[in-house]
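Possible regression after last week's pipeline update?

I re-ran a chain I had predicted before the update to compare outputs. Posting the input and the new output here so someone can diff against the archived version. Not blocking, just want to make sure nothing changed silently.
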Amino acid sequence: MRGSMRVAVLCRRLDGKPRNGFERYAHNLVAGLKGAEVDPLLPNQDVRLPIMPSGSLISPPYFDIVHPLIRILKGQLRADVFHAVTDSQAIMFPWLKGKKIVTMHHVDKTPADSLSEAVFRAFYGLGTRIALRQADKIICISSQTEREVKEAYGVAADRIVTIPQALAPSFRPLPAVVKEGTIGYIGALKKRKNVEFLIRAYALYVRKDIVSPLKLVICGEGTDRPFLENLCTELGVSDRVEFRGEVREDDLVATYNSFSLFVLPSHQEGFGFPIIEAQACAVPVLTVKGALIPDEVSMTTVKCSDEKDMADKMEMILSDPDLRERVIADGLRHATSFSVEELGARTKAVYRSVYGD
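New output (post-update):
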């Protein structure tokens, strides 16, 4: 390798409180790179304006265009390798001199469910088009994402490398946390997440001849919340379903540990962080059979064919201690394979390969 390689990671401000899969990836990537002895330039880390990294319409243009452009004009954004952690950060590629890498998380196949979602999709779509033209290498976070990128955009195999997401070591069993007697969900409340399926399955579970059925706790916010709350009322389970809103990062691990069972009913996930997060906290996980979730992530979940099957498997796992322990043990072993160290080392190898070219 020629000289010392300078790397810039194009991500939004890292505040230690990731709110979605993109931000979690950025936090884990930077931690892994530092462990691999790469100290990247983070151009958005010195932002002083009180703008959240995500969750508002101003976040994408400010963090992905305005502030980096200011750094470029001041001559403060120079590197040999630029890594955009999502395709929206790749919007700056035409103004950057150096090798370029983008991480793609998924190809969204569901329609936007709100005007703000449509605006975000258009913004990310612009970044995707730029990334596909200019990236020297495309990192995909799963084999499923790799297939989606090849099929949707016709990208050649030699431009793609698959490096799975990582799981922060903070996700672990906490014996001191008391189980609340709940079935849990954590995620956005939008159509793609398919939370309606979970509520309907839960209503069937409650109608079974169970002495003390567990409550359902739904954590998250989104445009579907009013619909989902009304659905609970229609199905007669509103007194047994609790909508808790967003979970603070500081409370996330304890929240997973408080669940007796976790369900991710999504139609599609680029990766499926909640699966391995829950498994690492020794909680069995149910998913929907046929969902577009990477096999390497969902392989040790209990897959359910329909709402009745999910209700049956809820009862089965919660009533059979031996089965429950087997599912937990399989999940714990599986979750340990997604390490921050591996993410950092493999990504550094990609940097070295394009820099050497």
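Follow-up from reviewer: compared with the archived run. The two ends are 10 Å apart (CA to CA). Marking as no regression found.
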